[in-house]
Amino acid sequence: MKKYAALLKRTKLFSGVGENDILSMLHCLNAQVREYNKGEYAFRQGEYIRSLMILAVGRLHIQKEDYWGNLNILNEIRPGEMFGEAYIVPNSGTLMNDVVAIEESVVLFFDIDRILTVCSSACPFHTQLIKNIFYTISDKNKSLVQKISYMSQRSTREKLLSYLSDEAKRHNSNSFSIPFNRQQLADFLSVDRSAMSNELSRLRNEGMLDFHKNEFTLREL
Amino acid sequence: MKKYAALLKRTKLFSGVGENDILSMLHCLNAQVREYNKGEYAFRQGEYIRSLMILAVGRLHIQKEDYWGNLNILNEIRPGEMFGEAYIVPNSGTLMNDVVAIEESVVLFFDIDRILTVCSSACPFHTQLIKNIFYTISDKNKSLVQKISYMSQRSTREKLLSYLSDEAKRHNSNSFSIPFNRQQLADFLSVDRSAMSNELSRLRNEGMLDFHKNEFTLREL
DNA sequence: AAAATTCTGTTGTATTTACAACGAAAGCAG
DNA sequence: CTGCTTTCGTTGTAAATACAACAGAATTTT
Known about the structure:
Number of strands of chain A: 11
Largest sheet of chain A: 4 strands, antiparallel
Distance between the termini of chain A: 57 Å
Mean pLDDT of chain A: 84
Strand content of chain A: 15-25%
Helix content of chain A: 25-40%
Order of helices and strands of chain A: HHEEEEEEEEHHHEHHEE
Oligomer: homodimer
Low-confidence stretches of chain A: none
Strand order of the largest sheet of chain A: 1-8-3-6
């Protein structure tokens, strides 16, 4: 467990907490370690979750199988990322998705009840922890809403323009770089990569924007 | 204001707080009441929000309209539900969506600063309040993720199937009713209404499901 | 009860997208 | 440098979608 302290220090959950304090908190939070083989299910749809998890090693897929058996990958979890935080709520119902290790993985479990119940003197960083989760969820909330606003655009062109113009706003400049390659951007916007590449070229030909690799520049018309 | 105490007692925000305590907290939180006619905007995109709201009566849609008038319903608020809580975080910027009353509605406003500043002895339930907000954000997070999982499907057919499949799971039955009419469902899934109607008919002809108005039944194949 | 409005399914057409396939460019490994 | 892999833009075709328009049903208003 000790060996994960350095990793944990860099996570959003333990942001602002020193390594030593983290170690003492791990006991307080009743932290557990579990390992999963490649292909093994960490959780299945319908299970109750009473822990907050952080992936220490490996890679997980959050995926879903529908009524007729079609599979869909919703999210990929990488080391240091937290998951299950949306299930902290009491009576939040059962998990709607499956969580599968797509590599040999190590997951840290933190008891939800111990996170929520502040143990007065023992853990001075407990309120910090709750605050961190609160901010993380709140941030995530907003970025989810933003993503939805891109995805709700009907055409690939409009999805691109709404995303890129938001990025321009965010960078306060009409030139900026994006954190995605083409395939990732296509996945993020839920469109076909080649169709998107096509649309990007068209936008460039029309003089609306310019790009080299991940560097984009929006042009006035 | 007093007449809403019974309602508030059953809300997530005041969960675990008695009616008498709620009444004394209303003053502490500087609670205000505002009424909206059907179709009236409670908030518009770009406004600053410094309150936490609870819908007392009626129905609200949190929605976004793009340049060409395509509407996307992000969420439907029903009596007792809280909204605006994601903007509690400092420096969270302006509202990204519109909030519209789709029925004659009554909204209660609570001063955010008074919520965040715990007034020690005065309000013994203040920490409970913050905890409750935390839970609510967490819940919304979950439903946003669900919505994204529907919208990320490439075709209208897949969007419908993933949504309906989830509703069946949620109701624990292959028969259930949905809270949308056709246009609202189309907006929720960000697809064209007529194309969606078309697809629904096709799915029915193929024997995958059945529906009458808002009542749906999924069929094994 | 009648009139007006909203809701829903259906059709046809123009447009857009998905998909597969390919070659060029870029990045990486030996 | 050479071979291998990944990324990217492009093309053509099949499939799906958006859009407009309309009529019948259902609902609301008068």
